[in-house]
UniProtKB/TrEMBL annotation:
SUPFAM superfamilies: Nucleic acid-binding proteins. Pfam families: RADX. PANTHER family: RPA-RELATED PROTEIN RADX (PTHR14944:SF2). The gene is Radx_1. GO terms for molecular function: single-stranded DNA binding. It comes from Chunga burmeisteri. This is RADX protein. Signal peptide: none annotated.
């Protein structure tokens, strides 16, 4: 059928009601958002953002309400979608922005694709990877993997992807979203090593929309975390309190989930796998820890500073 591109959409969307089908690849995926309120009677008040791209650039796509439970888990990073009967809206200005792996990619930030059950009822098709043709010109998923030895030189809030062997995982903890609210964020701390430094990656992992992965992070698993943000304590000793925290677009993968993921082709991921082959599993097992209370960043040594 006659296709359109994201670039053409941006130029012509105001003058049209119906749009030609789109062929795009998912490059980023946000966590699922629940926006239900007691007074609003919505059956499935869910929303999820994706960043999708074709040969012309990248644009946000929003999945609404009952389409979320139906499609959210199938739309993975790297999935190719054929979209028909979608709506175009002006962009929501306050949403988070992932950092693209390809810094040259054009970003269409004024509009977003809206997928709904009605007005109009969107038709979504997933194209299997083996049927994707090179002439479609869809971009590959690119990553920004760093090694532990590179982390100390990165600025606060820098976005990166990491892979490591888990040596410690803490218990799940809760933090209030707002001071007197009843909603909580669920998170856990983890350490992962990659052989490039004596220090581990210290990871603050908030529960994303992948409970099956979040609950099964164990020592000795290969952990991949994408779209992580560097957090530095710029006041005290900066090198001592550097860690990585998840963002709205972070994805987490553990052993058993890596097969077929786009990052398996990345050079730094391949280097890490080579390094793990040189390690003795029994030696690493002795150094692993699970559970317990992990105060981080550590409180100061004396009470007055605290």
């Amino acid at each position: 059928s006659k296709l359109t591109s994201l670039g053409q959409l941006e130029m012509t969307w105001r003058s049209r009601v119906h749009f030609h089908p789109l062929l795009v690849r998912v490059l980023h995926k946000s966590r699922l958002r629940y926006y239900g309120k007691p007074e609003k009677k919505l059956d499935m008040p869910y929303q999820a953002y994706f960043e999708v791209a074709d040969g012309s650039g990248m644009m946000s796509m929003v999945l609404w309400n009952s389409l979320c439970p139906e499609w959210y888990n199938s739309m993975k990073v790297g999935t190719v979608l054929l979209l028909e009967q979608y709506a175009i809206k002006t962009s929501y200005p306050f949403k988070t922005q992932p950092t693209p792996g390809d810094s040259q990619m054009k970003r269409f930030a004024t509009i977003e694709i809206s997928l709904n059950v009605r007005d109009p009822p969107t038709k979504i098709s997933i194209i299997p990877e083996e049927m994707v043709k090179p002439e479609w010109g869809l971009p590959e998923v690119k990553y920004r993997f760093i090694t532990r030895s590179e982390l100390d030189d990165l600025p606060n809030n820098h976005s990166c992807d990491v892979i490591g062997l888990v040596t410690f995982v803490g218990r799940a903890e809760r933090a209030r979203k707002r001071e007197h609210g009843e909603d909580f964020w669920l998170y856990r701390w983890a350490h992962a090593i990659d052989g490039t430094s004596d220090q581990p990656f210290i990871l603050e992992l908030f529960a994303t929309s992948q409970p099956d992965v979040f609950e099964h992070i164990h020592p000795m698993t290969y952990l991949v975390c994408t779209q992580m943000r560097v957090v530095r304590d710029l006041t005290e000793n900066p090198s001592s309190t550097i860690y990585l925290t998840t963002s709205n677009e972070s994805q987490i993968f553990i052993t058993g989930w890596h097969k077929g993921q786009p990052y398996t082709k990345d050079t730094k991921v391949k280097n890490f796998i080579q390094w793990t082959k040189t390690q003795s599993e029994a030696d690493q097992m002795k150094k692993t820890v699970i559970g317990g209370y992990y105060p981080f960043p550590r409180p100061p040594n004396n009470f007055l500073k605290y």
